[in-house]
Fold:
Amino acid sequence: MSDIAAISSFSQAQVQQEVAYAVARKSLDAAKAQGDAAIALLQSAADVQQNAQQTQRPLGPGQTINVVA
Structure:
């Protein structure tokens, strides 16, 4: 293999490695964003549940239906 071919091959391998690294970084960033979104969704659901429990009033007459026969 000539020197020029060896240098070209090395350069091509280096570019491929940089591209693979960039793709892996983008994939990791996307996974982190999805994880952050999932945590935010769970926190929001917990907040809604907590607010619902705080504002829940006891049921009075006319607010329930007895379906047992």
Summary: Residues 1-69 form one domain.
